[in-house]
Design a protein that fits this description.
The complex is a heterodimer of chains A (about 220) and B (about 475). With about 220 residues, chain A is an alpha/beta fold. Chain A contains nine helices and five strands. Chain A has helices spanning about 5-15, 20-30, 35-55, 65-85, 110-120, 135-145, 160-170, 190-195, 205-215; strands spanning about 95-100, 125, 150, 180-185, 200. Chain A has a five-stranded parallel sheet with strand order 2-1-3-4-5, with helices on both faces. The N and C termini of chain A lie far apart (about 40 Å). Chain B has about 475 residues and is α/β, with parallel strands linked by helices. Chain B has helices at about 10-25, 35-45, 60-70, 115-125, 145-155, 170-185, 185-190, 210-220, 240-260, 290-305, 325-340, 360-375, 380-385, 385-395, 405-410, 425-430, 435-450, 455-475, and strands at about 30, 45-50, 55, 70-75, 85, 90-95, 100-105, 105-110, 130-135, 160-165, 195-200, 225-230, 270, 275, 285, 310, 345, 350, 355. Chain B has an eight-stranded parallel sheet with strand order 6-17-16-13-12-11-10-9. In chain B, α9 (about 240-260) links the parallel β12 and β13. In chain B, α6 packs antiparallel against α18 (about 455-475). The radius of gyration of chain B is 23 Å and the shape is globular. The termini of chain B are far apart. In chain B, about 50% of the residues are buried. Classes of the chains: A alpha/beta (about 220), B alpha/beta (about 475). The interface of A and B includes residues 18, 62, 109, 185 and 200 of A.
């Protein structure tokens, strides 16, 4: 096995073994050997993620493993992206997604899972966290120009803030620039339609499907 | 942590039932139309009425017989790589059958040898089936030697221990022949039994000739025997649950003596199958709190006697894998598992025990998986209480991406195979499939990938020869 193949294999293994430290260390080594960071991402890390993703879809591996694999992948990717930037290049992404839990709601788990799943699937995710004021969503949309805005709400009393954000986007003249994807346990397809969102993700996997559809 | 054993009889009540049962076989006796067995009983000091073929069994003999009985029945897998020990306060799970019909959704047809092959193979791969009680009586073979086909199909299509009935002495001897061929000789079969012979008493207080002769043949050989006493309260036992329990206890005690006479140490499973009828149609009502009550009590009696116990329990009277099937099976299985009856049978059947169903087998596998997880209880220690972790994660933190979660979630959190836990729209996106449809898909997928056990070609041909001989004899 060539040194490159060996390192690629180590990157792949670090993802399927949920090993962030190794992913980061091997990514460094890969770059020091003068190898192309894009190859490291595509032929090493992505291969591991794909395998975990397939196992997840088949029901052979579960959310904690998927998230830990994603975390390992992200550690590696961070190193590679820095190198790509240093070389003056830019990593291709499916598009920028801005995501957050709406005002008054401090639930993070579902939103974090969706954020991770989108990141793993090639989206450039910016996570604004929880209890995000409507004004912050508007300012960040202006500043970062995402293709998609993801709004999470876990309790019925905060659902109206999903509508508030959409209304505020219209008022600010930004509604045409960004697609809105909503989700959270009490929300439904009907609610999404009612408040003028572009799509509704029923769970984390569905959110990825819907995000891809929105970009078509 | 240890999940407590559900013991529903007080000590006084248990002794009361046992004393009453001893009194029944001592004073009324049991009908035993087998000459050789009557002789043995007489030799042991029992009073025998030759004309009526009734034997009265003194309680002293019962008590001595109980002392000899093995506390565990060990059954091996066909490849001997695993075994289960039935006894103590462990609970195992298995199929049940003798179905003559096959139900697929709402469609049904007479059960064929091919259906039995499919049911057996699926039982072999479903994780929570530990023993296979033959699931059906094929209707496409000569009926008086149907038992030979049941043994053949069960043994050839599974690696798990097989429980099956036998027609008379000849049937039992053919079953032993087949078992010995697979085991590589009679001695090997005795040493590593992977089969157990099932017989039923005829309530009240009777042993039917053919069944008894078959059972005695197996016991003499040294094969474990499984003795069912299953009257219907108000029909062939009193309408009172206690009366029915007393009667089944009496019949099981008589069986303990009877088996000891031909082989003092032969392992026996005490299988109380006491039921209530459906008083509208006269049929059987398995899926009933009464079934659970009587058999939880009998589990306690058997445990008190030191004898491995069994009953149905994952049984429903529903005809389709519907809500009734779900609640009757889950209720029966849960209560009887808590009572720690040692072997709960009933997986894979609908319509009491009369119809086999592949989908239901998958559903039952799920019910058992839930019950087993509950019986495991939870681990309580420093590491599982995880206060260090909680401190590290902090207020409003997430546990999802911690090593602790990664190393514990699979053993701590029950993960369904069949049950759907999706939100409404996600479920709709995946085809809005109900339990029956999902169960059918799992059954089809498992059967498609079934590899089976490999027996040498000469073993198959020797087994077929046993069947051929049996066929010739009935011509």
């Amino acid at each position: 096995m060539s040194e490159k193949a060996n390192l690629l294999n180590k990157l792949y293994s670090s993802v399927i073994n949920f090993d962030s430290d190794t992913a980061e260390r091997v990514a460094d080594e890969f770059i020091k050997d003068g190898l192309d960071p894009l190859d490291g991402i595509e032929e090493g890390i992505t291969k591991g993620l794909k395998e975990i993703g397939e196992k997840f879809n088949k029901g052979e591996c579960f959310l904690p493993e998927l998230l830990m694999a994603a975390e390992a992948a992200q550690e590696g990717i961070k190193v590679f992206e820095a190198e790509i930037k240093r070389r003056g290049g830019e990593k291709e992404t499916r598009g920028k997604v801005l995501i957050g839990t709406v005002s008054g709601d401090i639930h993070s788990i579902g939103k974090n899972i969706v954020a991770t799943m989108l990141a793993v699937n090639g989206f450039d995710v910016v996570d604004l966290g929880v209890n995000v004021p409507t004004g912050t969503f508007i300012n960040k949309v202006k500043e970062l120009k995402p293709k998609i805005l993801g709004l999470s709400s876990l309790i019925t009393t905060t659902m109206p803030f999903q509508k508030e954000v959409i209304d505020a986007l219209i008022e600010a003249g930004l509604r045409g620039n960004v697609k809105v994807l909503i989700g959270g346990a009490p929300t439904t397809k009907e609610w999404a339609r009612e408040i003028g969102a572009n799509a509704y993700g029923a769970d984390a996997s569905d959110a990825v499907v819907k995000a891809n559809e929105l970009l078509k | 942590m240890r999940i407590p054993i559900l013991e529903i009889l007080s000590e006084d009540e248990l002794n009361f039932i046992q004393e009453k049962a001893l009194g029944l076989i001592e004073e009324i006796g049991v009908y035993l139309p087998v000459e050789s067995a009557l002789n043995l009983m007489q030799d042991q000091g029992c009073e025998v009425d030759r004309q009526k073929q009734v034997v009265k069994i003194p309680r002293q003999l019962v008590k001595e017989s109980i002392k000899k009985i093995p506390h565990t029945v060990t059954l091996y897998s066909r490849d001997r790589k695993s075994k289960i020990d039935i006894g103590g306060d462990k609970t195992h799970f298995g199929t049940v059958g003798f179905a003559t019909r096959m139900i697929n959704g709402k469609e049904s047809h007479s059960l064929t040898t091919d259906d039995l092959v499919q049911l057996t193979r699926l039982s072999d791969v479903m994780e929570n089936v530990e023993v296979i009680m033959t699931l059906g009586q094929p209707t496409d073979v000569p009926q008086n030697i149907s038992d030979r086909y049941q043994w053949l199909i069960s043994l050839e299509n599974s690696n798990k221990p097989v429980l099956c009935q036998a027609c008379g002495k000849k049937g039992a001897s053919d079953a032993i022949k087949m078992g010995s061929i697979i085991a590589g000789g009679e001695e090997q079969l005795r040493k590593y039994p992977d089969m157990c012979l099932v017989m039923c008493t005829s309530s009240p207080l009777a042993f039917e000739k053919e069944y008894t002769e078959g059972m005695l043949e197996a016991a003499k050989f040294g094969l474990p025997v499984f003795i069912v006493s299953g009257p219907l309260a108000s029909m062939n036992s009193p309408a009172t649950l206690a009366g029915t329990l007393t009667l089944t206890t009496a019949e099981e005690l008589a069986a303990i003596v009877l088996t000891r006479l031909v082989n003092p140490t032969v392992p026996m499973i005490y299988a109380d199958w006491a039921r209530t009828p459906d008083l509208r149609s006269g049929g059987v009502a398995f899926g009933s709190p009464d079934y659970a009550l009587m058999n939880a009590a009998s589990a306690q009696i058997a445990r008190h006697l030191g004898i491995p116990s069994s009953t149905g329990g994952i049984i429903t009277d529903a005809k389709v894998a519907d809500a009734q099937a779900g609640y009757e099976k889950a209720l029966g299985c849960s209560i009887l598992a808590l009572s720690r009856i040692n072997l709960i049978c009933g997986m894979g059947v609908l319509e009491s025990e009369d119809s086999g169903s592949l989908e239901q087998l998958v559903i039952d596998n799920e019910i058992v998986s839930m019950v087993k997880k509950f019986l495991e209880g939870m681990q309580i220690n420093e590491e599982t209480a995880a206060t260090d972790l909680i401190a590290k994660v902090g207020i409003l933190g997430s546990f999802m991406k911690t090593k602790h979660t990664l190393s514990f979630f699979r053993k701590e959190i029950w993960i369904p195979q069949l049950s759907d836990k999706l939100r409404l729209d996600a479920w709709k996106n995946r085809g809005a499939k109900d339990t029956l449809e999902r169960a059918r898909e799992i059954a089809q997928r498992k059967l498609k990938g079934y590899e089976g056990i490999s027996l040498p070609e000469e073993v198959h041909s020797k087994l077929k020869k046993v069947i051929k001989n049996a066929e010739r004899e009935i011509e």
